[in-house]
């Protein structure tokens, strides 16, 4: 296949949830789209995630991230429904809520502060005392001091999500090329006109979007490299045992089907409809060092059994790791690169790419199509790292 002869309205670098969802949105705006993926579509951070949709749980403070996250959460029901209607693929979108557990006095204090944020943003939340928490979840350890119940904290099966997005893109005519590593952006006269692959081939495009997750910083040809670094996360999937010690598809009453996500400051337990519980996750800033590691898994498994002692008898069905795309300020990088016409970026979502997928697709889909993208926060613009006149005039 000779890609150098192809010309597209938009080339997207990266086929994770962000790249695929923007490709779908751009096609809806009438653009011809090619998505170039260095590996297999959807098998990076999007595959390794847990699928929590948790704006209040993830926000460090009130501000643009929380507002954008809440907006994205509002979009999720229609986003999931639309994918199912287009593809016949159900993404296991569940409005299950979350129990954010307090395991120490300081954690309880911080959670009570989040309760105030929730009320300011009209997010359903309530404080539950320890006795009430354990009455609903008798398997929790006695160390639990209480919990913040977040009623609008949901979950989705991220692996089913990226599969559905891939199917939707292909059905709509997006050209998807896997095993195509983009090394350099091709620019001239202060605008982008395509990309160059590791094979030396060029792909022409009227516009280019870099959405390569943790690998976005390795794409050359920008005024300066994107300040995105890989943060490794390690996870496990457990199959809880029944009281008799046999693996139970319903979790043995430990984490009831359809029950809330359980989370502390060090760990989360995310139920799946098939009865498994996802346990995660480590955060290691060591470049692209592979995982999972013995130390990382030992820590999360020990903390899981400390939170829910019966998990000592659970079967470990799968372990894996992935690289989250981290930015210097912990917020996404969304928008046009200053001084280079028709060059866009959507990366740096860190551990919130799945949550922010609908809002990112909405905003970036409009932006690459030349429309108003008012929902993209100014705080997320690439200008904060490049400057308005960075090396391009």
Quickly list its features.
single chain, 393 residues, alpha/beta, FAD/NAD(P)-binding domain, D-Amino Acid Oxidase, Chain A, domain 2, 3 domains, 8-stranded mixed beta sheet, 10 helices, globular
CATH top level class name of the largest domain? Alpha Beta
CATH superfamily of the largest domain: FAD/NAD(P)-binding domain
Q: Please give the alpha-carbon distance between the first and last residues.
A: 36 Å
Strand content: 25-35%
Mean model confidence by pLDDT: 91
Order of helices and strands: EHEHEHHEHEHEEHEEEEEEEEHEEEHH
Label the overall shape: globular
What is the helical fraction, as a range of percent?
25-40%
Shape-level CATH architecture of the largest domain: 3-Layer(bba) Sandwich
The total number of structural domains is 3
Main sheet: strands, sense, barrel: 8 strands, mixed
Total DSSP helices: 10
Class based on secondary structure composition and strand pairing? alpha/beta
CATH topology of the largest domain, by name, is FAD/NAD(P)-binding domain
Number of strands: 18
Q: Measured on Cα atoms, how large is the radius of gyration? A: 21 Å
Low-confidence stretches: 1-5, 244-254
